[in-house]
Design brief:
The complex is a heterodimer of chains A (79) and B (357).
Chain A lengths: L2 H13 L20 H15 L5 H6 L3 H10 L5
Helix pairs in contact in A: 1-2
Chain B lengths: L1 H4 L8 H22 L1 H10 L15 E2 L2 H4 L12 E4 L10 E4 L1 H19 L4 E6 L10 E3 H10 L2 E6 L9 H11 L5 E5 H14 L10 E5 L3 H5 L4 H12 L3 E6 L9 E3 L5 E2 L4 E6 L12 E8 L9 E13 L9 E8 L8 H7 L2
Parallel strand pairs in B: 1-14, 2-5, 4-6, 4-7, 7-8, 8-9
Antiparallel strand pairs in B: 2-3, 9-10, 10-11, 11-15, 12-13, 13-14, 14-15
Helix pairs in contact in B: 2-3, 8-10
The chains are: A mainly alpha (79), B alpha/beta (357).
């Protein structure tokens, strides 16, 4: 699985999404599942998938699918 | 609000912070006046004129109990995405606080800035001294659940120390101590739960976990412990004897102003960050008390954008000890809470829980 696939998979698993069509435009709190509880679940999923540990500030700043990609780059995860 | 988040939470001195807070709190007063009818009626009833106010000390404050009696919001229903309720003992009315996305984000950001300044930027393995069921309902949070959730941002590998019946989850804590003993870890819980269900229970066991590098953050009220004559010094001493933990920080905060918590420093003083302030008021005429004088605590917060909770009179009494000159080096006011006003209801996550026992 490529990194991008893993990244997408983390969103799909956490938020129980059937397909990925809505992902590129998805922002924090757009859907019920992505609330603060879902947010921590997503972070845990990503940290597991890429074996990284994110800083608190980055978790706060992780406000959309797209911005998340930039944050992943900080942890040497090329998508 | 950006200027608040570009500032380290305990860096601005009195004048800079005063100007920043006044500007924001005036803006919030105006916003809530325009958008929240009951608030407007109160302000008009008081004959308050914002044009004549000099600083945030002059703003009208609402009694916190008002959030139990009235539904106060400044946003349309469809923009409310979380409702938080205060802790209350059975039979007590609870406050309802309505959050839109903006306010919820501001709260999480402020909390993060404040707590990170104590913990550092990297997250820590976290042991929550509570049971997992308190965070079950995701749209309706009790103050207890919201506190745990807010602090979860700082944890990696979060573990809960208690079962739903509040007995120690031996499997969970043994696993946590084995994995992270001797390392820097975060413990979080409400004061009474930490005392009753953690310290007391661990003492009964034949184990001595090594949390010497750990940091405990706890809050929610001292009422029950004070009644049992457990002082903060005793609390800290027993914790140290139980698990070697030395860094212990109490915090003061309330669901009506979530996010802008007041952390206890190394000197044992509660500190106001850049996001909020405390003002002590005279018991009879509400005039501002001097440093060292006991009064009713008023709290102001820059965060409440979706409800008029930016200036509130609490039911706590306390004393402001000074400003910008605490030996710990943090700027801003530092203070102590001395207890609840007489005849006030029991509140606080720790206290309401204890009253139910």
């Amino acid at each position: 699985m490529s990194n991008l696939e893993k990244y997408i998979e983390a969103f799909k698993t956490t938020f129980e999404l059937g397909d990925e069509s809505a992902l590129p435009a998805l922002k924090y709190q757009d859907i019920e599942a992505w609330d603060s509880v879902g947010h921590m679940a997503l972070i845990a999923e990503l940290e597991d998938a890429f074996d990284i540990m994110m800083d608190t500030d980055d978790i706060i700043d992780f406000s959309s699918f797209e911005i998340g990609k930039e944050i992943m780059a900080k942890y040497d995860v090329a998508l | 609000m950006d200027v608040f988040f570009d500032t380290a939470p305990y860096s601005p001195g009195k004048d800079e912070k005063g100007a920043l807070l006044s500007r924001r709190l005036f803006e919030l007063t105006r916003r809530h006046y325009e958008r929240c009818e009951p608030y407007r009626n109160i302000i008009d009833g008081l004959g308050f004129d914002l044009e004549k106010a000099g600083t945030y000390y002059d703003l009208p404050f609402l009694p916190v109990s008002l959030f139990k009696q009235l539904d106060l919001t400044s946003v349309p229903k469809e923009e409310i995405f979380k409702t938080m309720t205060s802790s209350g003992t059975t039979g007590q009315a609870v406050s309802r606080i309505y959050l839109d996305r903006e306010t919820a984000n501001l709260q999480q950001k402020a909390l993060s800035k404040i707590v990170s300044s104590f913990l550092g930027a990297s997250r820590l393995p976290m042991l929550i001294i509570d049971c997992p069921s308190v965070v079950k309902d995701r749209t309706m949070f009790s103050a207890r659940g919201a506190g745990i959730l807010g602090f979860s941002f700082f944890g990696t590998s979060r573990a809960y120390a208690l079962h739903d019946d509040m007995s120690l989850d031996m499997e969970s804590i043994t696993d946590f101590f084995e994995k992270f003993g001797g390392r820097r870890v975060l413990l979080f819980g409400f004061t009474f739960m930490v005392w009753q269900h953690f310290v007391h229970e661990i003492e009964k066991l034949d184990i001595k976990p090594d949390l010497s590098q750990g940091i405990l953050i706890h809050g929610g009220g001292w009422k029950k412990l004070a009644a049992d004559a457990v002082s903060p010094a005793v609390f800290k001493k027993r914790l140290y004897e139980t698990c070697g933990i030395r860094e212990v920080h109490d915090y003061y905060g309330m669901v009506e102003q979530t996010g802008a918590i007041y952390m206890e420093c190394e000197e044992g003083h509660l500190h106001a960050s850049v996001y909020s302030d405390v003002i002590t008021r005279d018991f009879h005429d509400f005039s501002v008390c001097g440093f060292g004088e006991t009064g009713i605590i008023e709290v102001v917060s820059a965060l409440p954008a979706s409800y008029p909770g930016h200036a509130l009179l609490t039911e706590d009494e306390g004393v402001v000890l000074g400003e910008d000159d605490c030996p710990c080096g943090r700027q801003g006011k530092y203070f102590k809470i001395q207890g609840r006003l007489k005849n006030a209801e029991i509140r606080g996550c720790s206290d309401t829980y204890a009253a139910g026992l």
